[in-house]
Amino acid sequence: MTNISKYNDFLLEKEFNxxxxxxxxxxxxxxxxxxxxxxxxxxxxxFSYNWDKYLEENNFPKRIDYLQIDxxxxxxxxxxxxxxxxPLSRYRFNTITLEHCANMDVRLMKMRDIQREIxxxxxxxxVGAGYCEDWWIDSELGISESEFNLITSDIWSGxxxx
Length: 162
Known about the structure:
6 helices
């Protein structure tokens, strides 16, 4: 059993051969990631990184399986700033996990609500509200919340702590 309380993508990479890219503002974390992981980590700022250019230059499809936004809490609205930098109007994500930490800090409830409004406005459907992160699916896929839960329960059971 794999315990990945911090990195959902670690499980996807190690257990399901997932391919992707990460970004970290701290060089030593990016370097460590690149030494120990098969996927690439960019040393950069999730608030200002040109994702549009990167995804285009690296021939990413317009539909991507998974987006995870999990930026440590400095500044307080970091996850919102990172979300606002993702080119949601040009790329669709089948599944999104988005950290908010509103249950740990009541001041972050407004940020969580804005994040939710942004994703709702792009046609995403929230299928899980965790203690510190929300789970979303693209409503264009036509998958209901109950179908999503059935699909993912076997995969994630005992392996993911939200």
